[in-house]
């Protein structure tokens, strides 16, 4: 049973990177909560924490940086042991605060419902506390920010839009690229050399653009996909492929 004084968990989407793209609700929740639990990879500081702190001061708050495994997760399969252990440790850390009656905000890049660590944490927490009170605060997605930066729609009219992780196998990606009018390929930073021949085969090279660190100060836009394949792209790199019109060059 849920302890009577259990705090509320907030999964807070803080947008794609530009702090000004945080919603008013996200700012309010982060301001009101006394505990922030920020996700990070083991070797890095928390990007979500840095963005949140640019709009709301963390001074006086309890800030927990939770380490999450970066290993690939396939739904319907048993998770990697390291990933499952990291979720469990994070859940227990957060639960210790919630059981003291303290509300906890979990700021996550983009939107919590789109390839976010927030729902892995929530799933593990609800295994421990099935009745845990939770509020999800949606945020602006990376793909929306990338679309804005290149001044091109994600979907228009009767477009079929597909959003996929770039790590899908080539056969599935080929089918998706052939059947969809527009495709968003997430996290392509290590996948581009593998994707290049497929884009070439389908004559989509000139209908693709890469946005690296979209909306952030270090943002770069790559219209020359072949040249970008020779670069070391940042982890926050997204490719937009649009068949019905060429990607326009932002002015």
Question: How are the SSEs placed, and which strands pair?
Answer:
Blueprint: E1 9-13, H1 24-32, E2 35-40, H2 47-53, E3 62-67, H3 81-98, E4 104-108, H4 118-128, E5 134-137, H5 142-149, E6 161-165, H6 170-179, E7 182-186, H7 192-201, E8 208-212, E9 220-222, H8 225-228, E10 237-242
Helix pairs in contact: 3-4
Quick structural summary:
The chain is α/β, with parallel strands linked by helices. It has helices spanning 24-32, 47-53, 81-98, 118-128, 142-149, 170-179, 192-201, 225-228, and strands at residues 9-13, 35-40, 62-67, 104-108, 134-137, 161-165, 182-186, 208-212, 220-222, 237-242.
Description:
With 251 residues, the protein is of the alpha/beta class. The protein has 2 domains: 9-137, Cobalt-precorrin-4 Transmethylase, domain 1 (3-Layer(aba) Sandwich), CATH 3.40.1010.10; 142-242, 2-Layer Sandwich (Methyltransferase, Cobalt-precorrin-4 Transmethylase, Domain 2), CATH 3.30.950.10. It is built from 8 helices and 10 strands. Strand 2, helix 2 (47-53) and strand 3 form a beta-alpha-beta unit.
């Amino acid at each position: 049973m849920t302890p009577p004084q259990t705090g509320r968990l907030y999964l807070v989407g803080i947008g794609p990177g530009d702090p000004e793209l945080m919603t008013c609700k996200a700012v309010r929740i982060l301001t009101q909560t006394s505990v922030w639990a920020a996700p990070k990879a083991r070797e890095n500081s928390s990007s979500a924490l840095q963005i949140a702190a640019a709009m709301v001061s963390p001074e006086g708050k309890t800030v927990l940086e939770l380490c999450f495994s970066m290993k690939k997760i396939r739904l319907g399969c048993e998770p990697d042991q390291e990933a499952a252990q990291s979720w469990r440790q994070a859940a227990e850390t957060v639960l210790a605060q919630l059981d003291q009656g303290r509300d906890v905000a979990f700021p996550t890049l983009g939107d919590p419902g789109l390839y976010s660590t927030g729902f892995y944490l929530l799933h593990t927490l609800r295994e421990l506390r099935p009745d845990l009170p939770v509020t999800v605060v949606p945020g602006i997605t990376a793909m929306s920010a990338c679309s804005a930066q290149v001044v091109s729609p994600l979907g228009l009219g009767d477009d079929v839009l597909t959003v996929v992780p770039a790590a899908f196998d080539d056969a599935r990606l080929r089918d998706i690229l052939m059947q969809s009018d527009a495709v968003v390929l997430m996290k392509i930073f290590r996948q581009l050399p593998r994707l290049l021949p497929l884009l070439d085969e389908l004559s989509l090279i000139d209908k693709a653009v890469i946005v690296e660190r979209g909306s952030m100060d270090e943002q770069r836009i790559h219209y020359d996909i072949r040249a970008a394949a020779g670069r070391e792209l940042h982890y926050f790199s997204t490719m937009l492929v649009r068949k019905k019109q060429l990607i326009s060059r932002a002015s």
